[in-house]
Specification:
mainly alpha; 7 helices; disordered N terminus; Mn/Fe_SOD_N_sf
Length: 133
């Protein structure tokens, strides 16, 4: 897990910095002062110079996505039994799972199928659920 994170995270971060640092030093300082965080930079893409807008969107968005994705993964616990998981789920949520999916095992199958088909996010889940595939 750390291998993927370190390689991808650093790559996006380096590319984003290269994009911003490719500007004149005065322009870079102005951009950093105007948008001190990556989130502010991404929220204000329309204010960036046209020639760096696409790269900032791609690499900045990738960095935010990877930070969010890897922050939501948890350690795999293969010895955990199905009933132990059910004990940790609130009764109202467990009832909803049983109504919509029959049981927890069926929900897991659908999440894995969605993740394999649609990428690392089990789409249409609220809250988002990160699954490393």
């Amino acid at each position: 897990m750390h291998y993927h994170y370190n390689i991808l995270h650093k790559n996006y971060e380096v590319k984003l910095l290269e994009t911003l640092r490719g500007r004149k030093i005065e322009e870079e300082s102005k951009i950093e002062k105007q948008f001190p965080t990556l989130e502010e930079l991404m929220r204000n893409l329309e204010q960036l110079p046209e020639e760096i807008k696409d790269d900032v969107r791609f690499f900045g968005g990738g960095l935010i996505n990877h930070n969010f994705f890897f922050a939501h993964l948890t350690k795999f616990e293969p010895k955990r039994k199905e009933h132990e998981l059910e004990d940790k789920i609130s009764p109202p949520l467990l009832n909803l799972i049983q109504e919509k999916f029959t049981d927890l095992k069926e929900l897991k199958k659908k999440l894995v199928k969605s993740a394999l088909k649609d990428g690392p996010w089990a789409l249409h889940c609220r809250p988002l659920i990160a699954i490393d595939v």
